[in-house]
Amino acid sequence: MLPKNNLISLQEARGQMFSFIKAYKPSKTIRRLEIKVRPVDMMAWLTLQKDEVKIYGANQSDSMSIAGIGEAVCIRAGRLGSFKKVFQSLRSFLLPQYPYLQWYGGFCFDDRHQDGDWKEFGAYRFILPRFELAAQAGKMIFCCNLIGKIDTREVLKQLAAIRADGFGASGGGRNVFSISRRTDQPDQRRWENGVSRILRARPVKKVVLARKTVLDFQQVPDPWAMLRQLKAVTPNSYHFAFQFKNKVFLGASPERLYQRFQRSIESEALAGTMPKSAAPSLLQKSEKNKYEHALVVDAIDGSFKQLCTAFRKDRRPGILTLPNGHHLITKFQGQLKDGVNDEDILQFLHPTPALGGTPRPAALKLIRILEGFSRGWYGAPIGYVGLDWAEFVVGIRSGHLQGKKLSVFAGAGIVQGSEARAEWNEVENKISNFIKIIR
C-alpha cells in the first residue's frame, strides 16, 4: 500500500476508471480495476449516489467495510433449489488474481414462505457490484468490475454520475424520523395465544416466535442516515444494508452464523437473553435461559461433528453484553473435512435453534402458522463469499424499509418455562435500538 500522502482522491481515481472501461474488450471472466484512494465516508458516499442497487457491510470492530453501487453480475431466484447450485455459480466467477473480489448477498429465512414485500430479495440474491469501495485498517480501494458484453456507453454514463466529492469525513448530523403510526404483528393477544400453542405442542422443544413492528413515517426516510444512527447506538455488531430499487434491508446483527477461511471454521451459539438492567450473573443462573442456550449449543455441536475432522467449543457459556441486553454465548472452532464446502455448512447450520427451533421441521411449521408474515431475509444468512473464504451473519436486529414504512423484526425463544408477557417484553427490548434512533 502506498504511503497516505501518495494516495489519490476518489475524483482522480474516477478519471483512471474511464480509461479502463473504454479499453475493455468482452471477456468471459471478470476484469477488475482496483485503485488505492484516500479514505472517504462510505455512507455519505452512498447517500449521494442515484443507483437503484446499493450495499454496505462492516464487521464487528468496523475495521473492515465495503460499499457498492450497481451490479456487474447478479445471481438470484425466487426459490432456493439447492445451496450447492448457488455456491457453484458464485465460485465460477472468483479468480486468484483478484484476492479482494467478493460476492455480497444473502438468503431468505424460508423460501416456502415468501411474500411480495421481499420480491426484490428473493430466495437468494448475490451481487458483484459494478463500483465498490473497500476499506481495511484505514486503507481504501475504489474498484470497478466488468464481464461479458457490456454497453460501454451506459457504464461510462454510470461512472460519470458517481458523486466523487461534496461529502465530508463525518457525513453530516442527526436526522429526525417522525412516526405517524405503529402496528405490531402479531398483536399482544395473538402473541400470547401463539406462545400458549407452542408450549402445548409436541414434540417441539423450542420455537423462536418473531414479531413484525411496522412504523409508518410522515416522510420517506433516508436509509443511510438511519444506518449511520443505528451504528452509533449498536457498537460491536455487524452492520449491513442492501438496497434493491426502493426497498432496503438493514440492521446491526450481534450474531455470526459462521466464518470460513480455507478449511478453518468458526461459529457461535447466541441464545438466552436478559435486559441490560439485570445483573449478568442472573442470566447464568436462569434455568430457562440455560436450557434455551443448550438447545442451540447441542445443534451446532451435532453439525460440527458431521462437518469437521476436529473441533472445540467453550467449556461453558460466556456473557455477551450489548447496549440493549446480556446474551449467553458459546464459541466453536473447527477444521473442516475434505470436500465440505459452504453449501454443506449452510445446509447443516441454517436455521439454528437460535432463530428457528427444534426439532427444525416442526418448529418451522409453527412459525409459518403463528407469525402471520414472511420473514424474508430476517433471521437468514447474509454475508460475503470470496475465493477461499466466506462469512455469514444472522440477519437479526434488522428492519425492512419500503417508502414511508419500516418493518422491524425481532423474536424470542419459546421453551418450557417461557411466559408470554416476558417474551413480548424481550422482543420490545430487542427492537429498542431502532426505536431509539427514530424518536
Structure description:
The protein has helices at 10-22, 42-48, 83-91, 152-161, 188-200, 223-233, 280-285, 287-307, 342-349, 360-371, 420-430, 432-438; strands spanning 27-37, 53-58, 64-69, 73-77, 103-107, 124-128, 131-136, 139-148, 179-185, 206-217, 238-244, 247-253, 256-261, 264-274, 308-313, 318-322, 325-336, 357-358, 381-385, 389-394, 398-402, 405-414. The protein is α+β, with helices and mostly antiparallel strands and 439 residues long. It is 29% helix and 35% strand. Strand 7 and strand 8 (139-148) form a beta hairpin.
Short description:
This protein has helices spanning 10-22, 42-48, 83-91, 152-161, 188-200, 223-233, 280-285, 287-307, 342-349, 360-371, 420-430, 432-438; strands at 27-37, 53-58, 64-69, 73-77, 103-107, 124-128, 131-136, 139-148, 179-185, 206-217, 238-244, 247-253, 256-261, 264-274, 308-313, 318-322, 325-336, 357-358, 381-385, 389-394, 398-402, 405-414.
